[in-house]
Structures are given as C-alpha cells and as structure tokens.
Amino acid sequence: MGLGTRALGAVFALLVAWTVTWSTIAPTAAHAIDAAEAAYKTGMELAAQRDVRGARALFERAWALTPQWRFAFNVARTAALDGDLVGAERWIWRAEGAAATDAERAKTVAERTVVEKQLLSEGYGRLRVSVVGVAGKPVVTVDGGPADRRDAVWVVWTKAGRRQVRVDVAGCRGFARELLIVERELRDLECDPCETTAPGHEVGRPAEVDVTVRQPLTPQPKVMPPSRTPLWVGVAGGALALVGGALMGGAAQGSGQDNAAYRAGTIDKSTYAELRSGTETLYGVGAGSAAVGVIVAGIGLWLHVTQPATAEPPPTALAPIEPELLHRLAASSFAHGRN
After folding, report:
1. Which alpha helices (H) appear in the chain, and where do they start and end?
2. What are the structural domain ranges in the chain?
3. Which of 86, 138, 164, 181 has the fewest beta carbons closer than 10 A?
C-alpha cells in the first residue's frame, strides 16, 4: 500500500469520525436549546401567575442549558422580587457579561443600580478583593464561604460586622485578615498571598462616592409645589362675592324703578309693597352672598400664601410590588424574545 493510499485512508477515517461526532453533538445542542426555550416559556407563565420562585428555578435551568442574557436577567428579577438581593446582584453581573446589545446593557445597568441601592439601604456592605503577584488560581473565601469571582476580582455583599477573609494559592503561604465591614461601605482589599512581608493594601470608602453606583444613594427630598386647593377656594369665594354684588346691584336698581313708578301713580300701594318686599329679599340674599364670598376668598388666599412647602421623602428602598401587579411582570419587566 503506497503513501498516497494511506493518506487517503486517514483522511477518510477522519471524515467519518467527524461526521459521527457532529451527528451526535448537533442533536444534543439543538435539544438543549429547545429545552431551554421550553423552561423559559414555562417560567414566564409562572411569573404571570405570581409564582416567583418557580419562575426563578426555570430561568436558572434555561441558563444552565444555554447561557443567554434574558435568562440571567429574569433570574435577577425574580430573585429581587423574592427578597434575595444578594442573589439578584450576582445574576445581574452574569447578565451584564452576557449582554449582546446596547439596549440589553443599558437595561442591566439600570437594574443593577436599583439592586445596589437597595442592598446598601438595607445595611449591606460590599467587599472587593484583588489578588496580585500570583500565577496560580487563588481561592478567596469570606467567613468560610466562596466569594464571587468577577474577572480579576472577587466580590462579596455582606451585612455589617467582622468578616474573616482568606486567600489561598498553591505553593504560597496564603493571606488571612479580619475586616470590619461597616454599613453602606464599599471596601477594596488588595493582597499578595505569596508575599511574606506586606499583609495587603486595604481601602474603605463611603458608598456615595463609589463609581459603580450610578445614582445618589441619599437623594435629596423632592420639594413639592404648594397645593392649589386654597387658591381655587379663594377664586370660588371671589366669584360668589361678585354674584352677591350683582344681586345687590340688581335689587337696588329695581327698588329705584319701583319708587319712581309708585310716585308716578302707575302702580298702587299694595303692588308697590309686594315689589318692595321682593326687592329687599333679593338685596339680602345678595348681601349675604357677597359677605360669605369675601370671607371665603380671604381665607383661601391666606392659606395659599402661608402654606408651607412640602417635601416628598427620598426613596430608601425598592418600592414593594403588590401581588396584584405581579401578573404584569411577564409583559413588562422581564426580558422576552430569542437572542
């Protein structure tokens, strides 16, 4: 058998192997996509039925089958609605890494900002650990639990208190430090677990100056404009006074005409008495209306001028979502469509 024949046989064998392998992988990948879409669809239905936890489990399953931005984003949304803000922040970070369009990135950043504000308002602090000077794979733990690795840093959101930080690397002495995490504090820790002299560089700063929080954490109260109700009361009182004045004027004019007619003899005494009685009644109604109108107008204008400015309290947490509104989430807050 010549070299050419052997070469052709080898190529043929490779083609057969590749065909068999691809015929096995392709249906598996297609099945994973279909299963992810089915889990996602059912999760949206559960979200519409207010079953947030059930929807989260299905969104996580869809992500495990085929990682896509909308799967991770919806896990974050359901976690936040279920009160798991730490989990929501973790999944938002995954969604941000899977975002493929500017719209997806913008929506993810907006969601992360809200969740970070909520975490800080509820007394959480964030610890970010950077490991330098090592070539291996560091293992970072906080109070014995693993920290989330995000590119070149490890992140932990934790309640205020003393936390034990450890960084272990094969072949190095490691690093250990007890840190005091303060409420609403964002703390950075840079350490070299293979360095025997420097224990690490630690930076703590208030949350308000952290660049990752894109909205003020302590927004100023919104000053509300004065209520217009007293002003409209004053205007109504003025209108009533004008009506009363018009009635008084009409009564006075009618009384003059009745007097002239009586003196000229065109009406008798009994008719004149009846007309005079009606005129006096009309004048009294007008005078009363004018007096009440003036008083109401004065009170309304006084209240409008002297009422203090009101302030709307700044939001300190995510507004609670009423159960009756959860059914709308499938059509609004959650991500839809195929990537």
Report:
1. 3-48, 52-65, 69-81, 85-98, 102-121, 229-264, 269-306
2. 27-121+318-339, 123-219, 224-312
3. 164
- Cα-based angle 70, 74, 77 (whole degrees, multiple of 5): 145
Q: Which superfamily, per CATH, for 27-121+318-339? A: Tetratricopeptide repeat domain (1.25.40.10)
Rounded Cα gap, residues 12 and 1, in angstroms: 16
Q: Please check whether residue 227 is in contact with residue 307, taking contact to mean a CB–CB distance below 8 angstroms.
A: yes
What is the torsional sign of CA 117, 160, 79, 147? Answer: positive
pTM (predicted TM-score): 0.55
Cα gap 275→335, rounded to integer Å: 79
Residues 6+ apart with CB under 8 A from 221: 311, 312, 313, 314
In this structure, what are the phi and psi dihedrals at residue 299, rounded to the nearest 5 degrees? -65, -45
Mind listing the pLDDT tens digit for each residue in 147-183? 988 888 999 999 888 999 999 988 888 889 898 888 8
Q: Which residue has the tokens 């009160």?
A: 83
User: What is the distance of C-alpha 22 from the center of its chain?
Assistant: 46
Of 200, 187, 188, nearest to 134 by C-alpha is 200
Q: Which residues contact 173 (CB under 8 A, 6 or more apart)?
A: 193, 194, 196
